[in-house]
User: What shape does this take?
Amino acid sequence: MTPRTQALDMLRAVARKDEGTRIVHHFATDPGRVQRMGIEAAGLYLDVSKQSWSLEGFEAALDLARTCDIEGRRDALFAGEAVNVTEGRAVLHPALRAADDADFHALGEPVSQEVTETRNQIATYAQAIGSGAEVGGTRQPFNAIVHIGIGGSDLGPRLLWEALKPLEPTIQLRFVANIDPRDMAEALAGLDPETTLIVVVSKTFTTQETLANAELAKAWLAESLSPRRMVKHLVGVTAAPEKAEAWGCSRTFGFRDWVGGRYSLWSSVSLSVAVALGWDVFQRVLDGARAMDQHFLEASPEVNAPIVLALAQIYNVEGRGRHARTVAPYAHGLRRLPAFLQQLEMESNGKRVKRDGTPVDTATGPVVFGEPGTNGQHAFFQQIHQGPMVVPAEFVVVGHTSEAAVDAREGDAPLWSNALAQAQALMIGKTEAQARAELIAAGADEAEADRLAPHKTFPGDRPSTTILMDSLSPEAVGALLALYEHKTFVEGVIWDINSFDQWGVELGKQLARAVLTDVQNGEPSEGLDASTAELMKRLMV
Assistant: This one.
């Protein structure tokens, strides 16, 4: 039995023992629980005291992290070693937000100077468009950008824009990801080709959905602009600049293969956002992420926010068999956070084999879902409060949802008070006796109280984590997203899987090309399964 297996077994054993103790009891027996399980990190505050673990469970989780050499594997990532073992690549998204004088290496190759040069190019371009020095083919300034990408080329930049955009932006930014033509039609509605910039984001510049949408955008431009003028409106963001230029992009902004798609928002992938928000704002996002990187590198495990946040999930999945987690951001600007985390966590850690190719001996990543704050309360919160399946919750709470409203505490209080109350309700619940007493106090007779009390009972003892942000500032958003990136990495280390490949997306894409060929030929190919063949025939009518 390996030390890792022993540490996992110990965590599971302690978790089984914890099952007999309610969360509220841990507070009663451990007066220092809030202080011990509250962590300050890069301007954020993380509270894991409402998790189900006892102090012994918390220590067992920390022992598991140490046994798995989290700190050593972290250092290997930052050193640019080939932590993406299946593709033989370094994983260096921290280099993208490092200071200009940083010295990162990818597999021994210096990369920081190239990062700085690309960053300066983006800053110069963003400032030129903002000032009107960079114009379109008819010499009119740009007032709209259509960002075309999918997956990591869409979710991160879209989240940043929604979180930080002003109420009246000087440049409109619209995103297109879905291959459904309606998505592009909605994005282009009301825009003027002469003042619209099209940014096509694809690492390989071969992504089927992105290129199909890019062709629609190019055709839209061609209706109003000559080919000579149109090229000024087409920009590529890619690791394959020659393909982007051959397609028709007038200029390209690059990033390297050590930038994974779902970790790429810090790179030129967010060119559109840097232009629309202004370079100064985007730089502040990078600053916040860099502060979280430093915390991850320097803080000891018991007060290291990414490590502790990851361990809470490991405890729930491995120790308590809880295979789903909900994330509820109590800020309208963070409404895309659950979708971003679905890709970040489920694409990273939804794996069936370990790094050496043998079957996993753990459950690996849970299902992640969510909705913004009070919206979710009127949707799926019913189930997480009273359903038989325990679903850990994560509340992301913003004290001031606008930087301009830092002193307007009363304006935000109804929002964040809901978040605090939901976490409290999940933990303490309501007994049937309490529910019955409330009904009697409200005027119900004995029979009515007996009938309704079971329906108004809340089991409670349901775990949650709360992450506090003072305001929805660029720095706080950057720190939050970097926190989740490092959390995902820590979980992958403990589960002994590669968090940086995504072979699971390939088979469906491969078969889609075959299905499309059959459609173009007018009939299902020989050997196609009966169900798919029947569905295809019905759709081809």
Q: What stands out?
A: The chain has 24 helices and 13 strands. The mean pLDDT is 95.
